[in-house]
Structures are given as C-alpha cells and as structure tokens.
C-alpha cells in the first residue's frame, strides 16, 4: 500500500543517516582530540580510572621537582663537607709541623688561623635556597613518593636527610634531668703526685746472691757482696735510675726497701721481682699504688692521670651535656643526634684542651675488655679539684667544636692539637659520607619516579587514546556511508511522486 502521509522508506533512510552522522561525529571527535575516551559519557569506568592515574602523574611530577631541589641542596652540603675535609687536612699538616720545637710556631699559627677562617666561610656559604645541611641538628625530610593503598588511601613518603653540624659552636649546656650517674671521676682531685711500688728486701742474704727487679719490661740484677739487705735495696734503686726510663725513678730507703715511683701520665708501669740465692732471701712487692693485680712478685704502678669513666650502657641523646670541673673552671660538651660516649669523651677532651691550661693534658681511651670509654686528665702542677656531672636538655655542640681554639704556639697546645684535629677530620669525613649516601638514595628515587611517571602516562594512553589508523579508516568509510545515506533518503523522498501518475 502506498501512502502520501507516511513514507516508511524515508523514515528508515533518515534513521540510518542519523546513525551514520552520529558515528561520524564521534570519529571526528576522536581524530580532533586524539582520545577514544574524552569524557565520562564515552566510558565512565575507564574515564574515572584514567583521571585518578592522571592525578597521580601530576603528583609524581611535583615529587620530581621536590627530589631535584633536595638533590641540589645535598650537592651543596656534600661539596662543603668535602672542602672542609681538605682544609682540615691542610690544618693537620700545619699541626704536625708544629710538633718540632725548632720551627716558627707563630707563623704556623697564623696559617692555621687563616685556614680556620676559610672553614667557617665555607660552612656559612653552604646553603641552597636558604637551607643549610651543615649547621643545626634537625633532620630534613624530602618528599620522595606517593603511595596509594588498595582502598584508595594515599600517603606521602619521605627520605630523611640527617643534618651534619660542622659549625664550631660550643652549644648550650642544659638544665634538664641529671646525667651524673653516667660519668664517674676516679678521684676528687687531680695532682702531680707520683704513684709508687714499695719493694722490700728481707731475710738472709749472702755474698753472690742475685736479686732481680724488672720495671717497664726492663730487668736489672744486683749481686750481693754481703748480708746487708740495705745494700741490696739501695743497689737495685741505683740500677733502675741508671736505666733513664722517662718518668720513672727509684729511691733506696736504707732499710732494705726501695720505692719505685712513676709520674707517667697515661701509661702504667709493670714491676716484678725475683732472686737467686743460696739461702732464704726474699724480694717482695709489699705496697702498690695502682689498679693492677698485686702479688708478692709482680704488679702495675698506675698511671698518674685521673679519669672520667663513662657508662657502657647509657644511650646518648641529642642535647645531653657533660661537664668536667678542673680546679675552679668547668668544661662541657653537649652531644648531638646519633652520638655516643666516644663522642662525649672526645668532646670533653677538646673542651679542656681549648682552654690552653699549661699543666693539664688529656687523652681518650677505650677499655679493650669492657668497651668503656674514658677521658683521662693529667696535672703536672699543684693539686686541683676534679669532678664530673651531666644534664639533659642542652643545645648540641658543633661537629667542629674546638677548631677555632687550636693553638700550637706552646708545646702543650701543639700536643693537644694533634689529637683533636684527627677527631675533627673524622667528623667532616663522616658528614661527607652521610651526604653522599643520601645523594645516592635521592638519585635512585628520582630515576624511579621518572620511569614510574612514564609507565603511568603510557598506561593512561593505552586506555583513553584513540587508535588514529583505525579512526582514519573508519572516517573514510563513514563518509562514504553518509553519501549513500543521503542518496537513499533522496530516493525515498521521491517515492510519493509516483502516486501522481495514478491520477493522470
């Protein structure tokens, strides 16, 4: 049946043409935008996933900037610490040269002062965008990653960079909880009094009996010419004095005893006795001033120095300060983050040495058996009060504390400087090593973030980007379909014209 009111062919042709035009419009949009999923209506699930990933990519781009900033800051700090190490090595050369008395120490001191000034200049300039990693103790955190959990929760991750204070600051002694129990002084005073061993010659002696006495590993023998024990004692004393052992003297007391005295500051002296007799003569060590094990035939005369024994179990926290009093003056060191009792002992040594006391010398020692660190203080002058205490809550001393107090113009100053400069060089080397390690971490993380960003970007593209080859081919096909659709609609529209022939 034909109708002039309803043209079914035209409607079908029009619907087909509308579908073609819709597909053509979508294909043209894909070509112009380059995306297969340009909005949520195209594919809501894929679009949502791509947007989340795009936000992560934006975040990782910001992290790359953060890592670049951190890497630059670390590079400055590393360069500064390495430069300081070189300068301290130059100072060490000057200090070593000053050990010889036949040199112009005043000129050497001038050179050292100039190098110290250069060290301070390097530390002061070592900042990037106002941030210095070679002053202060607070850690610096560098944003390194965004971690997305399976439930969508996002957390930030950081790389923590430890500041390595290379300033010469003395710090500030605190007034917090007492730390006095962590350090013990061996005596209430430090003096120049010699320590002694009393050797007693007793019983019966005959001519040609031989008495032996060993001091500091050197043995002497006295052959008796008669029976008088006084002769044996005085004879042994004379032989010991004839050895010329530095800091060691012997005195015959005229009664068969002799006193072996030692003023060695930081070294004990071993003493042992013996005899070869035809009778029953005896040589015995009856009194010993020292810490060694005493028997009738051997013992150790203690070193003259007194010591500060530091705890083997207590931890050292940032701001823990220890104070040693010698005479009427106190000398303190305030520990920084990550330091140990070894650092405390060396810091206290530096503090005392920096005062330039003429009669006072110091050293640091570690017990090979217990691992205990101690500061030893010797006094070649009159007796001085000696004590130690400690408190929490201070501001840490700088890693180069004591550098600006190096003074090689005197024998004692030159001796003290030699030990202290080694500590300072080790501190600067530790700082450079720490910065180098952090640089490696940041470089690795920066490379990973760059690769991860590329991978995410590629993944997003595979989900939403259009296949341009496919779109191009589809466009041409749809354009042909559109032309055919138009012709089909035109033919369908001409169909009612044939009804006119029925009325001719």
From TrEMBL:
<keyword id="KW-0282">Flagellum</keyword>
<keyword id="KW-0964">Secreted</keyword>
<feature type="domain" description="Flagellin C-terminal">
    <location>
        <begin position="419"/>
        <end position="503"/>
    </location>
</feature>
<comment type="similarity">
    <text>Belongs to the bacterial flagellin family.</text>
</comment>
<dbReference type="GO" id="GO:0005198">
    <property type="term" value="F:structural molecule activity"/>
</dbReference>
<dbReference type="Pfam" id="PF00669">
    <property type="entry name" value="Flagellin_N"/>
</dbReference>
<feature type="domain" description="Flagellin N-terminal">
    <location>
        <begin position="4"/>
        <end position="137"/>
    </location>
</feature>
<dbReference type="InterPro" id="IPR001029">
    <property type="entry name" value="Flagellin_N"/>
</dbReference>
<dbReference type="InterPro" id="IPR001492">
    <property type="entry name" value="Flagellin"/>
</dbReference>
<dbReference type="GO" id="GO:0009288">
    <property type="term" value="C:bacterial-type flagellum"/>
</dbReference>
<comment type="function">
    <text>Flagellin is the subunit protein which polymerizes to form the filaments of bacterial flagella.</text>
</comment>
<keyword id="KW-0975">Bacterial flagellum</keyword>
<protein>
    <recommendedName>
        <fullName>Flagellin</fullName>
    </recommendedName>
</protein>
<dbReference type="GO" id="GO:0005576">
    <property type="term" value="C:extracellular region"/>
</dbReference>
<keyword id="KW-0969">Cilium</keyword>
<dbReference type="Pfam" id="PF00700">
    <property type="entry name" value="Flagellin_C"/>
</dbReference>
<dbReference type="InterPro" id="IPR046358">
    <property type="entry name" value="Flagellin_C"/>
</dbReference>
<keyword id="KW-0966">Cell projection</keyword>
């Amino acid at each position: 049946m034909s109708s002039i009111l309803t043209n079914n062919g035209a409607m079908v042709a029009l619907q087909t043409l509308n579908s073609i035009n819709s597909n053509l419009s979508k294909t043209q949009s894909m070509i112009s935008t380059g995306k297969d999923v340009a909005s949520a209506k195209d594919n809501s699930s894929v679009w949502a996933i791509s947007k989340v990933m795009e936000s992560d990519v934006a975040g990782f781009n910001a992290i790359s900037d953060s890592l670049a900033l951190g890497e630059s800051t670390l590079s400055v700090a590393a360069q500064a610490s390495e430069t300081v190490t070189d300068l301290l090595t130059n100072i060490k050369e000057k200090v070593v040269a000053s050990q010889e008395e036949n040199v112009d120490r005043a000129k050497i001191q001038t050179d050292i002062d100039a190098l110290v000034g250069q060290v301070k200049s390097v530390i002061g300039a070592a900042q990037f965008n106002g941030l210095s990693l070679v002053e202060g103790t607070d850690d610096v955190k560098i944003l390194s990653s965004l971690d997305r959990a399976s439930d969508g929760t996002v957390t930030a991750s950081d790389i923590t960079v430890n500041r390595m204070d290379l300033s010469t600051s003395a710090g500030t002694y605190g007034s917090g909880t007492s730390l006095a129990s962590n350090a013990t002084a061996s005596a209430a005073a430090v003096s120049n009094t010699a320590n002694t061993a009393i050797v007693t010659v007793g019983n019966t002696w005959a001519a040609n009996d031989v008495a032996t006495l060993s001091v500091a590993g050197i043995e002497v023998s006295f052959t008796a010419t008669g029976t008088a024990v006084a002769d044996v004692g005085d004879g042994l004393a004379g032989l010991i004095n004839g050895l010329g052992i530095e800091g060691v003297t012997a005195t015959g007391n005229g009664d068969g005893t002799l006193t072996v005295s030692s003023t060695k500051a930081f070294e004990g002296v071993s003493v042992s006795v013996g005899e070869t007799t035809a009778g029953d003569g005896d040589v015995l060590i009856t009194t010993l001033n020292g810490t060694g094990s005493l028997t009738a035939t051997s013992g150790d005369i203690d070193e003259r120095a007194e010591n500060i024994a530091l705890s083997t179990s207590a931890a050292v926290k940032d701001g823990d300060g220890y104070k040693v009093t010698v005479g009427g003056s106190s000398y303190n060191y305030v520990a920084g983050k990550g330091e140990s009792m070894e650092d405390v002992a060396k810091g206290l040594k530096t503090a005392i040495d920096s005062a330039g006391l003429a009669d006072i010398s110091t050293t640091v020692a570690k017990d090979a058996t217990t691992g205990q660190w101690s500061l030893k203080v010797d006094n070649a002058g009159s007796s001085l009060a000696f004590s130690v205490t400690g408190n929490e809550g201070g501001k840490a001393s700088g890693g180069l504390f004591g550098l600006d107090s190096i003074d090689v113009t005197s024998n004692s100053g030159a001796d003290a400087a030699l030990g202290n400069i080694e500590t300072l060089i080790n501190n600067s080397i530790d700082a450079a090593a720490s910065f180098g390690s952090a640089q490696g971490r940041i470089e690795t993380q920066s490379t990973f973030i760059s690769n991860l960003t590329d991978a995410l970007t590629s993944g997003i593209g595979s989900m939403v980007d259009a296949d341009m080859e496919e779109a191009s081919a589809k466009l041409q096909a749809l354009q042909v379909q559109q032309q055919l659709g138009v012709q089909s609609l035109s033919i369908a529209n001409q169909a009612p014209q044939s009804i006119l022939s029925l009325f001719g």
